[in-house]
Amino acid sequence: MRTIRSIRQALGAAFCALAMFAPVRASAEEITVFAAASLATALSDIAAQFEAATDHRLSLSFAGSSALARQIQQGAPADILVSASPDWMDVLEQDGLIESGTRVDLLGNSIVLIAHGAGAEPIRIGPGTDLTGLLGGGRLAMALVDAVPAGIYGKAALENLGLWTSVSGQVAQTDNVRAALALVAIGEAPYGIVYATDAVAEDRVTVVATFPAESYPPVIYPLADLANRDVPAEAEFVDFLRGPQARATFERQGFVVLAE
Q: At which positions is molybdate bound (predicted)?
């Protein structure tokens, strides 16, 4: 009996000693990420990569940047925001809703004209383009032109090229840019204005023209940690978004990575 007791005591001491030298692994956490709808494809892939590399779990919520900002203002329990609108990020920063020193310009993008189908003919987009004639009585799909960044950028481009007045009555506005993409993909609208990265994600549309960069403000996606709570997983994911694996995913999707 003494021998068995002695063995148990020795084993217990050994396990305690091993535990003292075992690496300490952070407990798993779940964080909520709010992101612009145009990031849905890339961020879903990156989230899977992050979860595979850590014990953490991500809850992703995609919508128009204006809708996301308003939800955050109303107390939505989001931890991280990747917006397509520097202006809305400015508003949240002024409201004290983002963690000081965490904001960074993460990505860039561009605006394109897409057409339904895989073999649509390219067109030249400029001041003399007969966009109304191209629509042929159909609709031009766009995100909300006074609220959602993709719609705001698209309207600015059309105004600068002198095309907005002629086509404004034929614009079908949607809550976010992915909804505008879907209208063109299913043939409900013959043409649409979306981000270049949206077109990459949908094989039922063709990019027929790229708007001149000088015709609209630079498309910038700011990233920030929100100020509602502070857990280690938030910083880990922010670092991951700026790391080489995420960079490769963003670039495959057609984004320009701005953050180092």
A: 38, 65, 150, 177, 195
- Each residue of 2-22: pLDDT tens digit? 454 554 554 444 444 443 443
User: What is the pLDDT at residue 4?
Assistant: 46
| Stated length of the chain | 260
Residue 75 lies in a domain: yes
Mean pLDDT, the chain, rounded, equals 90
For 71-131, give the DSSP string. Answer: HHHTT---SEEE-S-HHHHHHHHHTT-B-TT--EEEEEE-EEEEEESSSPPP---STT--H
Q: Is residue 162 in some structural domain?
A: yes
Tell me the pTM: 0.83
* Known binding positions for molybdate: 38, 65, 150, 177, 195
Is the CA virtual torsion 89, 93, 98, 104 positive or negative? positive
- Asked if residue 149 and residue 193 are part of one domain, the reply reads yes
- Known binding-site residues equal 38, 65, 150, 177, 195
Indicate the number of domains in the chain.
Answer: 2
